[in-house]
Write a structure and sequence with these properties.
single chain, 102 residues, alpha+beta, DNA Primase, Chain A, five-stranded antiparallel sheet
């Protein structure tokens, strides 16, 4: 029951942010929030994951759709998800933070 209440709250908060703003924020390159690049590829770059303790570059940023996947901890998503997980903030707070970079 608690989960469904949290989803409803998230949806209500999401309605206060325009879809246009969300679309603009999702276009901000995730790369600018990542530590030093380790490996380059044509469609992706590899990094040491900032979401968990990592020795080898297991964090992959896909350039074409601006999403990420960590093969070490299993986290994935877009730039909004990354900021939410990295800073432990809500969806609305992550979008507000990212609006500075538009």
């Amino acid at each position: 029951m608690q989960r469904s209440k949290n989803k409803i709250r998230k949806i209500k908060r999401m309605n206060t942010i325009s879809q246009e703003t969300i679309d603009k924020v999702k276009k901000i390159p995730l790369e600018q929030f990542l530590p030093k690049r380790h490996r380059n590829g044509l469609r992706y770059n590899r990094y040491i994951c900032p979401l968990h303790v990592d020795k080898d570059p297991s964090f992959t940023w896909y350039k074409d759709n601006n999403t990420f996947k960590c093969f070490g901890c299993g986290e994935n998503g877009d730039v909004i998800d990354f900021i939410m997980k990295l800073s432990n903030v809500s969806f609305q707070d992550a979008v507000e933070f990212l609006k500075k970079y538009i």
